[in-house]
Amino acid sequence: MSAADDAQLESYEGVATIEKVAALARRRGFVYPSSDIYGGLGSSFDYGHYGVLLKQNVKDEWQRSMIQEREDMVALDSAVILNPAVWAASGHVEGFSDPMVDCRTCKLRFRADQLEQSQCGQKPSVAPGEAKQCDLTEPREFHLMFETQIGAVRDDASRAYLRPETAQGIFVNFKNITSSLRVKPPFGVAQIGKSFRNEITPGNFLFRLREFEQMEMEFFVPADEAVQWFEYWVEARHRWYLDLGLRASHLRVRAHQASELSHYSSATSDLEYLFPIGWLELEGIANRGDYDLRAHAAASGTKLEWVGHEERYVPHVIEPAAGVDRASLAFLVDAYDEEVVADRPRTVLRLHPRIAPVKAAVLPLVGNDSALVEPARRLYEELRRTMPVEYDASAAIGKRYRRQDEIGTPWALTVDQQTPEDGTVTLRDRDSLEQERVPVDGVPALLRDRLDARWDPR
Ligand code: GAP
Fold first, then answer.
1. pLDDT value of position 457
2. What is the whole-number distance in angstroms between the Cα of residue 216 and the centre of ligand 1?
3. Do the beta carbons of residue 437 and residue 425 sit within 8 Å?
4. 208 CB near ligand 1 (under 6 Å)
């Protein structure tokens, strides 16, 4: 299905809510509130076993499409704490802040530019400033970078920052990369890593966190190719989410108005996903021009330009910037479904098989029958050499299927009394619930083929 085939929805239609997805994620070991036994820490989360596997799949797919399958891309893993001069030159020290107002009555803090969409602390709640008890301060700038100190002395000279984006680590390595690797514009540098922002209004589960992971790529091009590469990357990044199963009706490209553009950007388009709480940014693709390389060259005194045989110029930059946690949330929300099967409710995560944390579950029909347990263990041990699989011999088979449905396992392989007789097992499909008998020897190759095949959501 292409984006064009499927008209986008006006508003969310579906059974998922952020609360339901967060509850399932906690119950099934994807994501826990951080520091839980101490009452948690606002908008901070720990990933459990299945969350780690899912998040790793998201990163692997990004890396595969960005680096492995391309000849014009190299990787980087730069430090979280950089020389503070980086953040002065990039404009973050001066400008990375949000205008906030405080209410002296309810003690809540609001983004000054989002008052109309916010709710004050009065009951019934209205927009801040609209109730007669509201007593708002003038807008004040709140800085979003986390500060820390380097070394034993705590003074202005030892102040450093946790990076609020991974991108600057790429720009300040431009000279290292061009002089050590075989690259020539157009080429890109891709990196995945943690970023930190002291968000004033975090929330909505994994959507806005203070500590999160980004997948950013800076694509360096000759100035006269920037517009064409910008369009290329908007299309390529849109296709990536669709290919991994996000429904086209829930994904759109939104070009920024001139008034929304960041100081460095001549064009930005957001890929937006229709969450149950509305259309929200999933990823931003920006044409950053030569702003960053020129700013760092001026501040550091190091020339940051491409030097070819007969040419020398400062490349322009196209940046697709995505969030691992936000993408993971979109995949979870998009996959979440509830239905009634044979008079019993079932919750299922219809995740793309490549995003699903576990690819298959091997289940002996009777958990204490050695005639079934032995071939089941053999199949499980064979499969786990090449993919994440689970063995489960506990509880009734229906309950075991439901558990796998809730963590999004696409296939269940049931070893039953027929297996010792004819060497076949039942393959159950998570989405269609169809069951087919397949030769046990062919299962590893069959699953590998299915993982490589195209997959259409619903
Ligand atoms: N280098 C450009 C940049 O950082 P951004 O739009 O601020 O641009 C890029 O961030 C992506 O990082 C966002 O689209 C989102 O997916 C993710 N992101 C940003 N802030 C986040 C937060 N507080 N929590 C979770 N993800 C966040």
1. 64
2. 9
3. yes
4. yes
